[in-house]
Design a protein that fits this description.
The complex is a heterodimer of chains A (329) and B (330). Chain A is of the alpha/beta class. Chain A is built from 12 helices and 12 strands. Chain A has a single domain, classed as Rossmann fold (3-Layer(aba) Sandwich), CATH 3.40.50.300. Chain B is 34% helix and 22% strand. In chain B, the strands form 2 sheets. Chain B has an 8-stranded mixed beta sheet with strand order 6-7-8-3-9-10-12-11, sandwiched between helices. In chain B, a hairpin with a 5-residue loop joins strand 11 and strand 12. Chain B starts with 7 loop residues before the first strand and ends with a helix. In chain B, 46% of the residues are buried. The chains are: A alpha/beta (329), B alpha/beta (330). At the A-B interface, helix 7, helix 8, helix 9 and helix 10 of A face helix 8, helix 9, helix 10 and helix 11 of B.
Chain lengths: 329, 330
Amino acid sequence: MGDALVRVEGLTRYFDVSKPWLNRVIEREPKAWLTAVADVSFEIRRGETFALVGESGSGKSTIAKMIVGLLPPSEGRIVFDGQPMAGTAGAAMRSLRRRFQMIFQDPFASLNPRWRVGDIIAEPIRTFGLASGAEVRREVGRLLEVVGLGAADAAKFPHEFSGGQRQRIAIARALSSKPEFIVCDEPTSALDVSVQAQILNLMRDLQDEFGLTYLFISHDLSVVRHMANRIGVLYLGRLAEVAEGKRLFREPRHPYSRMLLDAVPDLEMSGRRRKRVEGEIPNPIDPPPGCAFHPRCPLVADRCRREIPAPVPVADGMAACFAVEEGRG
Amino acid sequence: MVSNVPLLSVRDLVVEFPTRRGMLRALDKVSFDIAEGEVLGMVGESGAGKSITGSAIIGLIEPPGRIAGGEVWLRGERIDNLSEERMRRVRGRRIGMVFQDPLTSLNPLYTIADQLIETIRTHADIGEKAARDRAIGLLDQVGIPAARRRIDDYPHHFSGGMRQRVVIALALAAEPDLVIADEPTTALDVSVQAQIIDVLKEICAERGAAVMLITHDMGVIAETADRVAVLYAGRMAEIGPVADVIKAAEHPYTRGLMGSIPTITQTGDRLTQIPGAMPRLNAIPAGCAFNPRCPEVMPRCRSERPELLPRAQGRQVACWLYAREGVRHG
């Protein structure tokens, strides 16, 4: 694990959530903007699993989509292996595109039901011209075996498989372009726990075998704990904390990270006293001024209500919190 | 009050769905009890029969599905064969329901006040004003701030977590003996999930209502339930006190299930992996339904179905491993 494979700098994304033009004119309302992601910066090191956690509306999936190029950022930039993604086009972009892939949450929606599994997996191979003729079929068979299915499954359709098997097919397709980096957006949220365990184990084996780098997105903290080397905690589109996995769970610094970890129901039944969680995530169209977490924060001070805290470096990451900065945390 | 009659007793419950390709058995001889004031967790993977069990108890199996065998007793009275009219009085009044998606339980066209007052007055003979006061009291109890003002709002004015609190208030409006909560927190974020579980647990404890908590989230069960029942392919695999089942599961399926769950307190290198997947209902293997995936399978498991057998500390497990022991010691 060493240099940064992916660097995200000041990434920001707004969405226009205004009413239709006529309504705005009649009701004299200005345009409305939702800030889904605000000034997010982090780096993902080669060979590691970097996780983003957060509750719904925290901007996890928006960041994932921007990184793989499904959504253009409003501001900020994404640098893949030293090459800025914006401004790269044509053949250079094609060769960049081959090197990253994405696995989606719902394997029932991400596979084309009219295509045979073999064609689904072969599409990236053909698109990037990585093989031709009988070689493609051999490669598809090999990939199916890598993810724990059989070469004969290439002739079947997606509906003949269970959810876990479909996610294996999605993984085989993602691997087919021989990528270095895979963005996994809630890859096991739609699966049962025993199947989830199979997929998580498979993903770790593949990482060891092919030296893959993962961006792992999940709302499930136990899964993240199991998979990630480093973790970024998002709250209302901003990074609250970045930390090494072990440290975050042992000693979270940001008050929101602490609250989130306290809220997780624990199988160990350690009998730990849970702090009562207060309040809910505010409306992202009208976020509170200053630190977005201040209305729920036990360490709130005057300054938190006015200014947005800048990231403060801590031992193995950062925390964006005045209480941490001032040593009150 | 006869104290050794359980609040709810389910005996050999069978639920079937006729399909073009034959009869599907969604529940196959499921038996369990819930004591007064107890929280029973019901776990299993999708299709194991958790929700069907809940629906069968309150007589809400969608036709053409039907209860094809077994009995359901509530406080010593049989309720699975009641007329629709009498069943409706049991539902809501004696058994309250909380579903996964609060929007399906609330009518978007009526205010919270309308819905709560209607429910209260259907089951209790009191006036509009008294019912309204009781409704406000309920909303207070489930932790809705400024209940007196918010009671006249519509469901869409509330956030997901607040709506689920309203649904809990609605389920408890008629002071039922039992609340069946089917994945009550699955649609909610973690920080809100903890709040809802706390409310549900506290308010039921205060009122002495028993809870049947259906969920796939073992963490929620671990922190909430007194006992836990594990379903597999429509059959009861194991049932017992929650700490025993989680820390020292006896059924090989439960053991695999517990090992497959990542926890926040430890990072094992690998999760325990149960090979394969739960069988579809039209392809349940002969003998023990778990036998093709079981690491300890014996010849007998492939032909004979194990019954739920009593074990120490009120535990029960359906597995031939323990029957064999019983023979040896007995």
